[in-house]
Amino acid sequence: MATGLEIITDKDQMRKWSRSMRAQGKTIGLVPTMGYLHEGHISLIKVAQKHTNLIVVSIYVNPGQFSPSEDLSTYPSDFQGDIDKLKVLPVDVVFHPYNLYDYRDIESESKCNDPIRDSSGSESGDTGVVSCVEDKKLGHETWVRVERLEKGMCGKSRPVFFRGVATVVTKLFNIVEPDIAVFGKKDYQQWRIIRRMVRDLDFAVHVIGSEIVRDPDGLALSSRNVRLSPKEREKVCLLLLV
């Protein structure tokens, strides 16, 4: 059971914590999430526990992996519920950054219709994600791509998704500086892309893939499952039998 779960929102503070723990000879595991935690996420934490002294869980809904037509603004969120779950687990730090990107304040680069939000996501139904920061003058223009592996499968229908995933994971690795990172094999293409990125860019991070956790009806656990109607869920489960 965690005895003193710490919530860190500042990038420099997160890096300072990691380096302080490393100076004490501790090893650090990172479990990246977008929140709305379920048993699948908890299984990742249990895997990390077997490999490191300390565990950091990041909670950040990454706008870089959503296209304009996707569900960034309505992605499921329950930050306090997530914290309540993590308090009874072997988690030392929750890294919950306010924003990991700079944006241009022009419509062609980023929609600026959403209000500025605090890191707690205080608005009703809010994810805490910043989609535009008006006082930033420099736009984010650096992206990480794993060119061959991002093609096909999910990459066909979501052309910016894996670019956004690889970029935000690179950022998390540079900020948290973990020894190991655990990803679920439910997102198999994503896991393979992160492994290849780590190999190609010489990250000093060991990437571990954790097995899929399923509900009794066979559907893999996912935060977005909460949005399925009973009929939609039934259809998905029938497809698993084909």
From TrEMBL:
It catalyses: (R)-pantoate + beta-alanine + ATP = (R)-pantothenate + AMP + diphosphate + H(+). Keywords: ATP-binding, Cytoplasm, Ligase, Nucleotide-binding, Pantothenate biosynthesis. Pathway: Cofactor biosynthesis; (R)-pantothenate biosynthesis; (R)-pantothenate from (R)-pantoate and beta-alanine: step 1/1. GO terms for cellular component: cytosol. One of its GO terms (biological process) is pantothenate biosynthetic process. Pfam families: Pantoate_ligase (PF02569). Its EC number is 6.3.2.1. GO terms for molecular function: ATP binding; pantoate-beta-alanine ligase activity. It is an enzyme of class 6 (ligase). SUPFAM superfamilies: Nucleotidylyl transferase. InterPro entries: Pantoate_ligase (IPR003721), Pantoate_ligase_C (IPR042176), Rossmann-like_a/b/a_fold (IPR014729). The keyword Cell wall biogenesis/degradation does not apply. It comes from the Eukaryota. Belongs to the pantothenate synthetase family. This is Pantoate--beta-alanine ligase. It comes from Aquilegia coerulea (Rocky mountain columbine).
